[in-house]
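User: quick one, sequence for these tokens?
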């Protein structure tokens, strides 16, 4: 009875978060459409050079391979083939577009769990380490932008907040892994008070989760993750730059700022990031002197460039016939 109530409560909470996301999307769309000169937006869309947009799509597709290789490196304890790893990654990305609270990360771990005896806890741990690397890349982008381009004080404070979060969270994670045996002994004593069998089951899950996190302390794994993280973010910035170039705004600083801003904005639970994505583009590009109407046109096209390929790629890889777990 209690478990049924708990499941119902979880579903209700997810529904409320999804509805709140829809509310944010509706508000964003209303703010964008208010006092907008649609003729100017359509004119900017009509005059864009879509050869640059195609180059942006290719850069986004290239990030699939870079992100997959990084995840394979973080799954250091097993050898996961490229196709299932990429499929799980793209499926997780699509789920994140629809459901709130990073549900796609759980879906990704569940999808890859049967491959090569990877396991759900290990996969979830590797995804957590992946977030640490992305946070480090976000901090690097912030520092580069502050040195490169005059930005408002709030951006400097945001970068300082990112550095603090990385130092506290990353430090706590590293310390937990370093003293994990001691922590497991304490956890074992605590869990011994639970019904018989629970302590062994929960400790086993925690150990497997720590095994997935262990890549954070392995130099070879970290060096590979650093390389693929830098390439992933570089390709993302390149995709932004290509779309900006299509509208006659070839600004590398704006492309890098957009990358960081959209990464942070992606944490807001809005289905499909509808309205929010475009709003971030408009606000970001205003700092670089881009008027609102062409900035919205950039946001609309960039939204399709960023969101379209993962949707198509996930569908093709998930539905394409082939042996499960085949190697590349």
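Assistant:
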């Amino acid at each position: 009875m209690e478990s049924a109530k708990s499941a119902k409560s979880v579903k209700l909470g997810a529904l409320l978060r999804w509805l709140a996301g829809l509310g944010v999307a509706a508000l964003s769309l209303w703010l964008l459409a208010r006092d907008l000169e649609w003729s100017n937006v359509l004119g900017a869309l009509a005059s864009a050079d879509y050869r640059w947009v195609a180059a942006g799509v290719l850069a986004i597709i290239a990030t699939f391979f870079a992100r997959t290789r990084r995840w394979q490196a973080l799954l250091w304890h097993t050898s996961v083939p490229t196709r299932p790893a990429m499929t799980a990654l793209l499926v997780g990305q699509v789920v994140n577009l629809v459901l709130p609270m990073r549900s796609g990360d759980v879906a990704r771990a569940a999808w890859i769990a049967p491959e090569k005896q990877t396991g759900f806890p290990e996969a979830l741990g590797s995804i957590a380490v992946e977030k640490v690397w992305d946070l480090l890349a976000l901090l690097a982008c912030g520092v580069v932008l502050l040195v490169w381009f005059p930005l408002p004080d709030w951006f400097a404070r945001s970068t300082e907040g990112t550095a603090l979060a990385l130092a506290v969270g990353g430090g706590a994670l590293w310390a937990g892994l370093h003293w994990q045996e001691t922590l497991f002994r304490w956890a074992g004593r605590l869990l011994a008070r639970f019904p018989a069998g629970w302590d062994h089951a929960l400790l086993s899950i925690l150990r497997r989760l720590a095994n997935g996190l262990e890549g954070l302390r392995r130099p070879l794994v970290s060096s590979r993750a650093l390389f693929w993280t830098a390439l992933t973010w570089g390709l993302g910035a390149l995709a932004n730059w290509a779309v900006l170039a299509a509208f006659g705004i070839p600004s590398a600083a704006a492309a890098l700022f957009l990358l960081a801003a959209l990464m942070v904005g992606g944490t807001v639970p809005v289905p499909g990031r509808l309205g929010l994505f475009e709003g971030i583009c408009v606000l970001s590009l205003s700092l670089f002197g881009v008027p609102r109407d062409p900035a919205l046109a950039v946001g609309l096209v960039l939204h399709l460039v960023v969101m379209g390929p993962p949707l198509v790629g996930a569908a093709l890889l998930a539905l394409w016939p082939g042996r499960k777990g085949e190697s590349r």
